[in-house]
Amino acid sequence: QLQLVESGGGLVQPGGSLRLSCVASGSIFRLYVMGWYRQAPGKQRELVARITSGGNTNYADSVKGRFTISRDNAKNTVALEMNGLKPEDTAVYYCNAGLLGHDAWGQGTLVTVSS
Predict the structure, then answer these.
(1) Res. 96: pLDDT tops 80
(2) Helix/strand/coil (H, E, C) string of 72-100?
């Protein structure tokens, strides 16, 4: 029932910044734990950042201090601000919503960090 649509991906130079956004459609968005995951070619999908319904956050060590996750429950959106991007950040980034064992996923948006 909850649908997620990501946007904001693209090509950026090393050291640059991007802001990803995810818009959710659903009646109980505010109750979901929201997260951003990423998957690079040949690698497992990994958690990048997570934010609870109350706004508490958690980050992967690889992005801590560079990425910031936020949410706006009134607008049913979650964002990922990425700074100091590195080539190893290149991946398809996915928006995720979790509640009571149910997971919803967006279609993904590609981030490429390259000169």
Answers:
(1) yes
(2) ECCCCEEEEEECCCCHHHCEEEEEEEEEC
Dihedral of CA atoms 101, 29, 19, 91 in degrees, nearest 10, equals 20
Instruction: Name which of 56, 29, 60 is nearest 47 in CA terms.
Output: 60
For residue 67, with 0-12 CB atoms within 10 Å meaning exposed, 13-18 middle and 19 or more buried, which class applies?
buried
* Segment 55-92, tens digit of pLDDT: 999 999 999 999 999 999 999 999 999 999 999 999 99
Closest CA to 72 of 53, 87, 47: 53
Joined together, the tokens standing for residue 94 give 């996915």
Q: How far apart are CA 27 and CA 33, in angstroms?
A: 14
Give the residue carrying structure tokens 């909850």: 2
Render pLDDT for 25-59 as a digit per residue (tens, 0 to 9).
977 899 999 999 999 999 999 999 999 999 999 99
